[in-house]
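Q&A FORM
Asked by: J.P.
Topic: structure of Adenosine deaminase domain-containing protein

PROVIDED:
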Amino acid sequence: MLDFLPERIGHACFFEEEHWRKLKSSKIPVELCLTSNIRTLSVPSIDAHHFVDLYNAKHHVVLCTDDFGVFSTSLSNEYKIAAFSFGLGRKEMFELSKNAVEFIFADNMVKEDLRNIFSLVAKNL
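REPLIED BY: S.T.
REPLY: Here is the structure written out as tokens.
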């Protein structure tokens, strides 16, 4: 899968060490759905989630949700879980959400609009 150089990787829960090295060197962003990964037992606990490794490696991660109806979570809740579970402050959470704009499936005009919104918000922080 990594050899195809996709625009993003979803979850990345079952990678072996070789795959992690290849992923990190490829700079392919990873969509992470914390609640889904816990409830489906894809990771044993939030403390063992690979978010920490990817985040600390400064690899591009995008917090997402799978299915609101199935997992009873929202994107806001996923950010809340990340903040509390991994000790991220306002600045880190802002940067995490701002950086996600670069990896959304949208045209450049939409991305530029979102970048401008984040720039305006950053001035008021």
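FOLLOW-UP: Residues 108-123 form the longest helix (16 residues).
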